[in-house]
Design brief:
Number of domains: 1
Number of strands: 27
Structural class: mainly beta
CATH superfamily: TolB, C-terminal domain
Shape: globular
Largest sheet: 5 strands, antiparallel
Radius of gyration: 20 Å
Length: 428
């Protein structure tokens, strides 16, 4: 099951913060349009540690207009058991790989599921709820570097990131005996495990971790640099340091570990960054962070930007104050580029920027969805201004993840339906 918005325990009541009129006309217009649509309450919006208001498109404009796009999901295969992650090997084989919550990785070839799974580690993991086999990524040098990386909750319910390599002479099977354990993170609660894996354009492995669970971040992990919880980590898995099977990249913002800050941290202030993806054209990192009581958000870290961005949890939920319920204004926090309320869904499923060729109406658009409502939204990814998401489809599916094939075509998974679906689009 994908991340739930939070437990049923008492939750702090949120009050909405007042609208701050910003100087830049484009940003102000985006806020007013969102308010007029009735989908957002007034909120303060920031754009990075300088505290400057959100600005216009960093590229001076974009040809993608989500208002002109209609998205549908076309079935590819069914019969899967709780699919949670989609990946490709980048090896020219055109295979699609699907991680199932129970611990299996299935291969889809030519529209069919291969009889024998790529990997089965079901005996090693804790599954159910928000636990299980959660993330999957191939080394960018695959198959010359034959490692495949997974994120799962181990027998104790803790996060484990490991690599496996294929059985010699059989590229359709990983050898369970080749497991190399790379990163272990204790989990205080069974929810908010994150679990997404992705390699950045420089070959560093990014690992998403939730705030540790329960509700409201009771341990303050999101705003603490002394824990890996509530973060996106960045590590070098091609080298090792003393005592670790990985190296800390020298340009990580806290690489020196001073004052107890964890050197693996790249981004922080996140509640449960369930799915993330890189735009293969720009290198931008897109993050879907699951909300608590009222708001779901999409965050972006632009290619080339320094690490250390604080996305605000648990000071903010989306573009709105959380703790304290008012007066959370802080120029060091970076607000999302879009968010939506629980009147439209309950669990954001981060998607991807479409860079394929088959769906011309969708080229250059960022697509994402919601687990509970099955709604699908799109935004122009070139803009740094806050904007309300544009609903482009209603799938009727229990969306759990999006992923790309080698050609950049976009797919989605229906966890309850056990299906992989191709994202298709027309102009409206």
């Amino acid at each position: 099951m994908v991340p739930h918005p939070g437990p049923t325990a008492a939750r702090p009541r949120q009050r909405r913060v007042r609208l701050v009129l910003v100087a830049l006309v484009v940003a102000a217009s985006a806020v007013l349009v969102a308010l007029a649509a009735g989908r957002l309450s007034p909120a303060v919006r920031f754009d990075g540690p300088t505290g400057k208001p959100s600005g216009p498109s960093r590229s001076g404009g974009s040809a993608f207009d989500p208002r002109r796009v209609a998205v549908t999901l076309e079935p590819v295969v069914g019969g899967l058991a709780l699919p949670l992650a989609i990946a490709n090997a980048g090896d020219g084989s055109r295979r699609i790989f699907v991680a199932e919550q129970g611990g299996r990785i299935e291969i889809i070839r030519d529209g069919r599921i291969v009889a024998t799974p790529f990997l089965d580690i079901g005996a090693e993991i804790t599954t159910g709820g928000e636990r299980g086999l959660l993330g999957l990524a191939f080394h960018p040098g695959y198959p010359a570097d034959p490692r495949v990386f997974v994120d799962y909750t181990d027998a104790n319910g803790d996060t484990q990131v490991s690599s496996f390599v294929a059985i010699r002479g059989d590229p359709d099977r990983l050898d369970p005996a080749t497991e190399t354990r790379i990163l272990h993170v204790a989990q205080p609660y069974p929810n908010h495990n994150g679990g997404a894996l992705a390699f950045d354009p420089g070959g560093m492995l990014l690992v998403s971790l939730g705030d540790g669970g329960s509700g409201g971040d009771p341990h303050g992990n999101g705003q603490s640099l002394r824990t890996l919880l509530g973060k996106i980590l960045r590590i070098d898995v091609d080298h090792a340091d003393a005592g670790h099977p990985y190296r800390i990249p020298a340009d990580n913002p806290y690489a020196d570990g001073a004052d107890g800050r964890r050197p693996e941290i790249w981004l922080w202030g996140l509640r449960n960054p369930w799915r993330m993806s890189f735009d293969r054209a720009t290198g931008d990192l897109w993050i879907g962070d699951v909300g608590q009581n009222l708001w779901e958000e999409i965050d972006v870290q632009r290619a080339g930007a320094a690490g250390g961005t604080n996305f605000g949890w648990n000071r903010m939920e989306g573009t709105h104050c959380f703790v304290p319920p008012q007066g959370c204004e802080d120029a060091t926090l970076t607000a999302p580029v879009t968010d939506y309320g629980h009147d439209l869904g309950c669990t954001v499923i981060g998607g991807g920027v479409y860079r394929g060729s088959a769906q011309r109406a969708l080229v250059g658009g960022y697509v994402f969805g919601d687990y509970c409502s099955g709604r699908i939204w799109a935004i122009d990814p070139a803009s740094d201004a806050y904007r309300a998401p544009v609903e482009v489809g209603s799938s009727g599916r229990s969306l759990s993840t999006f992923g790309e094939d080698e050609a950049g075509e976009l797919y989605a998974a229906d966890i309850n339906g056990g299906a992989i679906l191709r994202v298709t689009a027309t102009t409206r």
